[in-house]
Design goal:
With 126 residues, the chain is mainly α. Helices cover 61% and strands 0% of the residues. α4 crosses α5.
Length: 126
């Protein structure tokens, strides 16, 4: 990585120039314009700080779904899934096994991880 640094030539200014430059500097922007508080966070009433509207909608849908589904309903759904899996429906077998055992993993990845763990263990034990 390269870092470029530029050196600014040093100039000595008279006291009159320095006072004029200080008078020309502007104060930081007001929080009224940008909707942020004194610490740079969103202030109350800022329209941009309302969050994700789609996430709120999804949350409402999930809440109503959980209110509608009872424990007995879930048991019936799982029983039907298992019945179809036992009947030989491939999609049901796959879905049931993925939820019970987790999705299948790449064996080559597992072998590489095992080798990596051995290497790390050997370096730590030295």
């Amino acid at each position: 990585m390269f870092v470029l640094r530029f050196a600014m030539p040093m100039q000595t200014a008279s006291s009159e120039e320095t006072e004029g430059q200080q008078a020309m500097t502007t104060p930081p922007s007001s929080t009224v314009c940008n909707g942020r508080g004194a610490r740079g966070r969103f202030a109350p009433g800022n329209k941009a700080a309302k969050g994700n509207g789609i996430a709120r909608k999804v949350t409402r849908f999930r809440t109503s779904m959980f209110a509608a589904v009872k424990a007995g309903d879930v048991k019936e759904i799982v029983a039907e899934l298992l019945r179809q899996a036992k009947a030989g429906e491939g999609w049901a077998v796959k879905l049931a096994l993925e939820y019970l055992c987790g999705p299948p993993t790449d064996t080559a990845l597992e072998e590489r991880l095992a080798i990596l763990e051995e290497t790390i263990f050997k370096k730590e034990s030295r």
